């Protein structure tokens, strides 16, 4: 007899995780958008804070919510990579454009591939794994863009800001979609229970 695949995450409040990640992305996106300074040093400061905070949020929330041990470890590693990249960006904020491009490219490649791999491994276990796939692809695309585009501080910092906006918007939609799906499931369960109790 076939069984439905186990859920990729545990608990009914996982919808708060993508919303938390969205908030972490929106703040630096706004800072980039409303700041005329798009220098490499500014980019390192903004990326450093984002990567550090996002890494902590990703590692802590994933360890508490993801059911699969391997993917829990992968997301924890992803968080640690973010923390290390963030610290490097903040400490070496005077590293120049080359360092900024290199650091963001490596961070995006590693974290994007890890999240994409997790989504592929557990695909079919609900909307959560689809969200991991999409965020992983978008992050990996950022890595390719930084790698292939001609080096230019204004363009590169602006591209980072655009990525943060796109990720933020997607994660907000993902978070509320999970919440609404849970509410619909509860209503359906309550309705079926009421019907079964009706003589």
Question: Which key features would you list for this structure?
Answer:
single chain, 199 residues, mainly alpha, Serine Threonine Protein Phosphatase 5, Tetratricopeptide repeat, 80% helix, disordered N terminus
SSE order in H/E notation?
HHHHHH
**Architecture, according to CATH?**
Alpha Horseshoe
Query: How many beta-strand segments?
Result: 0
What kind of sheet is the major sheet? Answer: none
Shape: globular
Helix percent band = over 70%
Percent of residues in beta strands: under 5%
Number of helices: 6
Mean pLDDT: 86
Uncertain parts: 1-6
* Structural Rg: 19 Å
* Amino- and carboxy-terminal Cα gap: 32 Å
Could you please say which CATH topology applies here? Serine Threonine Protein Phosphatase 5, Tetratricopeptide repeat
Number of spatially distinct domains: 1
Q: Which CATH class applies here?
A: Mainly Alpha
Would you tell me the structural class of the helices and strands?
mainly alpha
Protein name: Integral membrane protein
Transmembrane segments: 19-36, 42-61, 73-93, 99-120, 132-149, 161-181
InterPro entries: DUF308_memb (IPR005325)
Organism: Cryobacterium arcticum
In short:
80% of the residues lie in helices and 0% in strands. The N terminus is likely disordered.
What does this molecule look like?
With 199 residues, the chain is an all-alpha fold. It is built from six helices and no strands. The chain has one domain: Serine Threonine Protein Phosphatase 5, Tetratricopeptide repeat. This is Integral membrane protein. Keywords: Membrane, Transmembrane, Transmembrane helix.
């Amino acid at each position: 007899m076939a069984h439905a695949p186990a859920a990729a995450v545990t608990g009914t409040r996982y919808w708060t995780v993508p919303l938390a990640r969205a908030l972490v992305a929106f703040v630096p996106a706004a800072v980039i958008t409303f700041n005329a300074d798009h220098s490499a040093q500014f980019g390192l400061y903004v990326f450093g804070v984002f990567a550090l905070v996002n890494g902590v949020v990703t590692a802590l929330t994933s360890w508490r919510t993801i059911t699969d041990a391997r993917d829990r470890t992968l997301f924890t590693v992803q968080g640690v990579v973010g923390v290390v990249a963030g610290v490097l960006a903040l400490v070496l904020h005077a590293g120049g454009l080359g360092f900024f491009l290199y650091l963001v490219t490596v961070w995006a490649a590693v974290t994007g591939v890890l999240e994409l791999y997790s989504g592929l491994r557990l695909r079919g276990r609900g909307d959560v794994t689809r969200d991991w796939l999409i965020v992983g692809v978008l992050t990996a695309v950022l890595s390719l863009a930084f790698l292939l585009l001609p080096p230019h501080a204004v363009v590169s910092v602006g591209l980072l800001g655009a990525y943060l906006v796109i990720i933020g918007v997607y994660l907000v939609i993902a978070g509320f979609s999970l919440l609404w799906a849970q509410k619909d499931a509860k209503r359906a369960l309550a309705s079926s229970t009421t019907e079964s109790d009706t003589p």
